[in-house]
Amino acid sequence: MPIISNLGKIMEEKKMTYEELQFLSGVAPDTVARAKDERIATCKLLTLEKLADALDANVHQLFRHVKKERAVPGRQPERR
User: Fold this and answer.
1) How many CA atoms lie within 13 A of 8 on its CB side?
2) So what CATH class is 3-61?
3) pLDDT in tens, 22-78
4) Helical H runs in the chain?
5) Which residues have CB under 8 Å from 19's CB, separation 6+?
6) How far is Cα 25 from Cα 9, in angstroms, rounded to an integer?
7) Three-point CA angle 43, 50, 21, nearest 5°
8) CA separation for the pair 28, 36 (Å, rounded)
9) Is the sign of the CA dihedral 32, 35, 38, 42 positive or negative?
10) Phi, psi of 7 (to 5 degrees)
11) Contact 6, 62 (CB under 8 A)
């Protein structure tokens, strides 16, 4: 999956439990669990804002995007 959740890492850094995050954010328990475990397919911006506010973080810190390398016909993949 090209979108990686940072929720678990942020929660660990802040020593925050699921229950605390759910209470402080007002986000449903299953939504918090799915977002943390990368099982969430869609999410409202308001939900991201609530999670970020509860974690004292910015919305862009909650997830990161990892680009997939695409094969280009006739071109060798770059070696790193």
Assistant:
1) 9
2) mainly alpha
3) 999 999 999 998 888 878 778 899 999 999 999 999 999 998 888 877 777 777 766
4) 7-13, 18-25, 29-36, 45-54, 59-62
5) none
6) 17
7) 100
8) 13
9) positive
10) -60, -45
11) yes
